[in-house]
Amino acid sequence: MIISVASGKGGTGKTLVATSLALSLKERDKVQLLDCDVEEPNDHIFLKPAFIRSEAASIPVPEVNEDKCTHCGKCAEVCAYNAIAVMKQKVLVFPELCHGCGACGYLCPEKAISEEAKEIGVVESGSSDGIGFVHGRLAVGEVMAPPVIRQVKEHTSREGTVIIDVSPGTSCPVVEAVKDSDFCLLVTEPTPFGLNDLVLAVETVRELNIPCGIVLNRAGVGDGKVEEYCRKENVPVLLTIPLNTEIASFYSRGVPLVEGMPQWKATFLGLSDRIREIVNERSSDTER
User: Fold this and answer.
1) 3-state secondary structure at position 105
2) What is the C-alpha radius of gyration for the chain, rounded to an integer number of angstroms?
3) For 69-88, how does the pLDDT look when each residue is reduced to its tens digit (9 = 90+)?
């Protein structure tokens, strides 16, 4: 089973939930944690994995052979990202805009376009006390997170439970990380900002046809509008974590919640059981 942990906004506690779930489950299941928040990965701060492998993350970008090029403009016409501009006697390539789709080379009538790898980050893998761990890091100055995320997800285990820590928001990197999940946990907080971004996140996950549930973090502040929205939209609130200075203190020191406060392990195991029930129910309904 693949469980993605996402949120509409940053700072809601995705890392707290993802690491706590992984650490709780490892005692009864094979667990792998993929940190797909490649712009700011921080799960390693809490799990402290031993990395055994590092590989470059790259995308193919076009290289034009001007001797073959007739400057017909087909490559620029097909590029949806404006990564190529064709002048009268020169083709300009903008690697920063290229998504590496390969359409320009495929459709070039003169076969004047080849591809060369451009390194945009790194993917590191290892383990932490029985938990398989993989994360990606986008290089400074690079903007193309989805290719790095795809490379991280290539390491997805076919056994046990896979937990994917997703970047905040609802943009392309989030869609790339969440898609193909069996379930998506959306972590939010009971504030107007939390509600606004939660609505966007729920809509995004529904477009991907992935069942979701809510983890309400820092409960006790704000108002009850998040719970009201969840009831109205029939989105289950699966776990509530109170606003607690002790929890915040552990987090600030890089101590996972279930290690600092072991009584939470049973709670996260119960969360896992509830997720599995929802996924199984959905699968049964689909088969009917």
Assistant:
1) helix
2) 22
3) 999 999 999 999 999 999 98
